[in-house]
Amino acid sequence: MPLTLSALSAAAMLKQLTAEKHQQLEALMLPCLTSITQKHQYVQLLHSFYGYFKPVEDAVAPFMSEAVLPDWHLRRKAQTILLDLAALQQKGESIRLANELPQIQTVPQALGALYVLEGSTLGGRGITKMLLKNEAAGLQPEHLQFFGGYGSHTGGMWTTFVNVLNSFQLTEAELAQMVEAANQTFYFFKTWLQETIVHD
Q1: Contact predicate 138/94, CB 8 Å
Q2: Confidence band, pLDDT 50/70/90 cuts, at residue 175
């Protein structure tokens, strides 16, 4: 690992070394969001997000505890998608789940995947405003709990996660595992969206 990177915090290194995969995912996701003009399209989007977030969260869970991330129990987002679907009078059963997932067999890999899931909350306010502004879709705030992230606490929750991430004394190999898991999480989310939304 280059010396310039080894001097960075874990969060800063993740941001730098996953930027390409992150940008590729955002380039795909933005058209998916801006093209929503009807409620059923939003329901399809929620299905796609649940189909990825749920199995990734389940893969991360065995490596999370209060010792690793004290507020982990507050950070499960897939269940919030089910609340949005219920508010839309849609059932959450039988949603197809992704089977191409990041490799998560260690705590560093779990934290790398969680970096992606937690980071997704940061753009939520902008997405929520955009979807609410589109009157044709007929969406209300109670339909947008997932994209709302942690509401007014979103910034604080992200700062807490970053501080936890940076508190670990990780070896070079563990940092490499974390970065690889984060890149895989971005990549497989992109391919899942392509499969479930873009080409539907």
Answers
A1: no
A2: very high
| CB 106, CB 64: distance < 8 Å | no
CA angle 188, 131, 11 (to 5 degrees): 45
Closest CA to 101 of 58, 69, 43: 58
DSSP three-state, residue 49 = helix
| Residues 6 and 172 sit within 8 Å (Cβ to Cβ) | yes
Q: Are 147 and 131 in contact (CB under 8 A)?
A: yes
Q: How far apart, in whole angstroms, are the C-alpha atoms of residue 124 and residue 101?
A: 23
Residue range 60-115, pLDDT digits in tens: 999 999 999 999 999 989 999 999 999 999 987 789 999 999 999 999 999 999 99
Residue 161, both tokens? 């996660």
Phi-psi sector, 97: left (phi>0), alpha (psi -120 to 50), beta: beta
Q: Can you tell me the distance from the alpha carbon of 81 to that of 51, in angstroms, rounded to the nearest whole number?
A: 10
